[in-house]
């Protein structure tokens, strides 16, 4: 345990406690000032269909790709003026690609064998998708929220984007991220502030914040996100959708920005799916994983009753006390899930997790050890620490070209996560021991229910405080475990809540099977506004 790191953690906790009444009053005042704090209702039934249903309709020629792509484009145009979740769109190109798909299907002449072969080769044929800007979509912006990169465009698809397109998916746009993806808030000087579809005064999260907002609003069938510290799971929590962080190293990160050749980076950063439907996660992950999909045994049947369930409501002991308390609403939905699974006859027990006593140090040291990963302020030497501090002060006064959270992230890395450099390897070894301990606990048939974060979406401007709970997500990147965020309804303020399902490495299918069951039992995604079909 690092005393200075813990001093910062406790200081933030007490600051949050002191500021909570002010934040609550600010929330009430802000809501009273917003004349329109709701998105347009979903008017087309197609928006509510999952991937499998839409693929069946396309194959049966009950629906054309042009019709489907048009529906999603119209929904995006309805909601994005409020969400500000898009960096750049390619709607005309997408419609041309959809027309090509329709001709391809028509050329099968209704032959069932030909159609089956066509959709087996391209399982996402004709389906629209959205892409996090940092994942690289050919011909589109590649600034990743940075003023310094504002002119950059990528000429090639990132590896995962290419796989999805090869499977027939049609990209509609690239979505907003924080600067360099170094924040849990998609708010940049280049693109402005993205907002939460459930409350415009709140953040959609980050770094896949644009994807979270679009999926939560019903404006994306599915999206490609990336995650090095919770960047898929946090927006999924904040925006009420499903998101899966695969086992470390299973999904290539080639083409992503930021990038590093560091071996640990290749394990920590993963690309994965964000979607409103738990049933869509498995087919999307299979395509994303490419040649490594066989390691995940995704087609192997999983008997729900054979899964052993462990759960924890927070970090244990003194470590949990030092962190900001997990909201009761989040603890309650974990307990609701536990009760449901016990009634189904599953073995359920509370996890003790003694190895998590230094969760923050294990998590932050993992990021601090990374080499060759870009800083927003490039260069070497101690002078850059002072330069970063200067930029931080300028940012707080609105005078910097860089965002506050990105500068804090830079400083954290340059200062070895606020701990002595020689301690970084100590926490590497401790993390390896924790991974072994948790792997033994979960085995090949166990999952753990665990908070994704300690609280739902925070107000704009408050994310620097909420960031001090990032080890709830980051620790599983460092350990390399697969994690699925599961939405579990809304709290009294109308904000999405939920939790994570964690499994041992390469047991992603257990997370996904549990997500499907919890979606069935508790409803999964809830639209931010009532559905009003007009067709």
Topology (SSEs and partners):
Layout: H1 3-33, H2 51-59, H3 65-83, E1 86-89, H4 91-106, H5 112-121, E2 128-132, H6 159-166, E3 170-175, E4 187-188, E5 192-193, H7 209-216, E6 222-227, H8 233-239, E7 242-245, H9 263-268, E8 270-275, H10 281-289, E9 308-311, H11 317-322, H12 328-343, E10 348-350, H13 359-368, H14 383-396, H15 404-414, H16 423-442, E11 446-450, H17 463-466, H18 471-479, E12 483-490, E13 496-503, H19 508-522
Parallel strand pairs: 2-3, 2-6, 9-10, 9-11
Antiparallel strand pairs: 1-3, 4-5, 6-8, 7-8, 7-12, 11-13, 12-13
Helix pairs in contact: 3-4, 6-10, 7-8, 13-16, 13-18, 14-15
Task: Please outline what is shown here.
With 535 residues, this protein is an alpha/beta fold. It has helices spanning 3-33, 51-59, 65-83, 91-106, 112-121, 159-166, 209-216, 233-239, 263-268, 281-289, 317-322, 328-343, 359-368, 383-396, 404-414, 423-442, 463-466, 471-479, 508-522; strands at residues 86-89, 128-132, 170-175, 187-188, 192-193, 222-227, 242-245, 270-275, 308-311, 348-350, 446-450, 483-490, 496-503.
Report what the structure shows.
43% of the residues lie in helices and 12% in strands. By secondary structure, the protein is of the alpha/beta class. The strands form two sheets. The chain has an eleven-stranded mixed β-sheet, with helices on both faces. It is globular, with a radius of gyration of 22 Å. The termini are far apart.
